[in-house]
Amino acid sequence: MQKTITPTITAFERSPDRGRGLARDTRVRWALEEVGQPYEVRLVSFAAMKEPAHRALHPFGQIPTYEEGDLALFESGAIVFHIAQRGAGLLPDDAHARARAITWMFAALNTVEPPILDLQTTKFLEGDKPWHEQRLPLVRDRIRDRLRELSARLGNADWLDGAFSAGDLMMVSVLLRLKASGMLDEYPNLCAYVARGEARPAYQRAFEAQLAVFTGQPPAA
Ligand SMILES: N[C@@H](CCC(=O)N[C@@H](CS)C(=O)NCC(=O)O)C(=O)O
Question: Among 63, 159, 168, 181, which is most exposed with the fewest C-beta within 10 angstroms?
Fold first, then answer.
């Protein structure tokens, strides 16, 4: 990165996913690891996230946030984009390739993530509703539509558009939310794509760091 200020991000003090890496600080940690930028983490409780001090950083009272000197950002997409612009390795130099990588970041967040989040909402927040069982297959089908289309585009390629980029980082992060559902297994090339992302040393470091918050153990050296 161009600046030497060590950024500080926020993460859950108690991660509801029990350290499975699904909270959105993981994608930010991953981006920081990819560009080799050291960072600090401030852990916040659910109560503190809703306090004015945190809302000054994040109007919606959520994590992650990112502070670097007098710059404060929220929204994981904006944060990863900022990191990718400052560091090397997440956005190609060629202007068109760079614009396409950014397009994939938006596609991950705006087109692929929403139906996946909908599945989590219906599972965890609407399970007691009388219409839950009818809604579930509809939500799953909307996810399948996106997975089928993404799988067709990826084909046999390693990454979505040439070399690994912030677009892949975001897409893999989004798809990881589906792992436990088994839905990814229907698309072997997407499974392999996600596995390639998870195998990256930068991802592993990010995963271990967020897990350490949950276990209380320092990340393995
Ligand atoms: N669109 C936001 C979503 C942020 C978000 O939903 N954060 C979750 C953790 S992954 C959160 O803070 N949830 C607690 C809450 O909303 O109270 C982003 O990408 O950063």
Answer: 181
